[in-house]
Amino acid sequence: MCSDGVKFKELPSLITAHYRPRVKVPATAVDDPPVSIFKKGNENDDFGANMSEDIPIEEEKKQLPVLVTHDGASHADDMLSYFLLRQLDEYKENILIRTRDEGIIKSADVVFDVGGEYDPEILRFDHHQGSYHEVFSEATKDVTMAAFGLLYKHFGKRILKQWFPSKLHDDEKLDFIHSYIYLKWVREIDAIDNGIAVCDGDLKYTLQTTLSQRLHVKEDLLKDQMRAEREEQFKQDKEDGKIPKEQEFKFSLTDEEYIDIFKQFSDYAGTEFKDFATHSLEMLKLLKITKKAFEKRYEVHSSGKIMDMNYKGYCDKDILVILEDNAIADAKKDGKPIPARVLYFLYGRDEAHTRVRAVGVRNHPFRCRAPFPEAWRAKTSDKEYEHAIGVKGVTFIHKTGFLAATVDHESGMALAIKALNDAEDDSHPFLTVVLPFIVLAAVLLLISFKYQQAFKKKVGFRGFFGDQ
């Protein structure tokens, strides 16, 4: 029975000729919208769809938009995709069909994570086709977008503005938060769904606490609980003579139960997403400080690779990456030289506690673009640092080379400049490695030439370098 007391088999089909070309679609319970459609399962079933006869739709339902995704196992990608669509007024009430039937897919209003087509003009958002290679931005070029990322890219700003109208009332803030949320949250879902590992090579450990993993565990636990409860009831019914003794227990879920499970997990995942989006608004304060320092970086050093936070706050790497990518995109658009990326920034609570930080590498939590040289790190006294670096006032450099402390701003700047010069020398292998070999080869060639000239004069032998 559904919420309105109608039996499943008495329910109408959800698409009719009055709404669009007649197609066969799943029969299901018409629950409070949005409506989901699943097949009746067995003990091995995941979510699916089952075809039924085409029956005229009830009047009040026939104009609801039809959303289609794949049948089979569900993942965070399609659950979050459905959540996003339900945030839009035009899809808040909808009919959801989970199928791979081409006729139903063709007639749907929105198709996501199935169909083999990406075309936002006709609301098709699949990512499985071989020609597909869409990425969100330059900052995330190593991760192709899944359905969730595609929908977030096209509808995310609208949804964020709808959620936080007073905080994201101007385009600059909206653009930043939109990019930041993708970089910090949505990208992970896309990467997992596309089978993109967090790094190359063997992992030292695996993550079992991601949203995708938690959804998988929760689904298994829920099914196990439902199975155990029904098996216990089955045994009791056998003892009471309600079921033949020879009958074996089989576990299956009804259409309504599949609907409830999918809704529950979609809402669960969506709540976490909205929580993170709310939390990300705190970055707007740091954005203002970081942007001001970023715009003045060429005043700090002519290279633009050293940034000074002026003791106003800390420079978040992800904020910096977004600012850099925007600056690079603007330069390319205007035909101007590509600006350099920042390697070091100064910060701290006051001048006596000046810190110099090596900017982290994109997509890696522990590596730096230009860490402080190994020979400078982890000394036991200020004199040792001065002797190793040639800069006074350095009191600490972390053993991994990502952080340094100095007694004042002047020492911090001197250290950053010295590190920058060292990093730029190391970044030119031709000058530091190849050129010395070329010089050595030239010297040996010259010596050989002189030797053969002298030998020729003595014995009249015409060597390799002799006259031809």
Short structural description:
Pfam families: MYG1_exonuc. With 468 residues, this protein is an alpha/beta fold.
Beta-strand content bin:
5-15%
Shape: elongated
Q: What is the count of distinct domains?
A: 3
Rounded to an integer in angstroms, the radius of gyration calculated over CA atoms is: 32 Å
How far is it from the N-terminal to the C-terminal residue, by CA? Answer: 103 Å
Question: Helix fraction?
Answer: 40-55%
Mean of residue pLDDT values? 83
Description:
This protein has three domains: 1-281, no CATH class; 283-426, no CATH class; 434-468. The chain has helices spanning 76-86, 102-107, 147-163, 171-193, 211-239, 255-280, 283-295, 297-300, 317-334, 382-389, 409-426, 429-459; strands spanning 35-37, 66-69, 95-98, 110-112, 118-119, 124-125, 306-308, 344-347, 354-358, 394-397, 403-406. The radius of gyration is 32 Å and the shape is elongated. It contains twelve helices and eleven strands. The N and C termini lie far apart (103 Å). Helix 9 (317-334) links the parallel strand 7 and strand 8 (344-347). Helix 3 runs antiparallel to helix 4 (171-193). The strands form two sheets. The protein has a six-stranded mixed sheet. By secondary structure, the chain is α/β, with parallel strands linked by helices. The model is unreliable at 1-57 (pLDDT under 50).
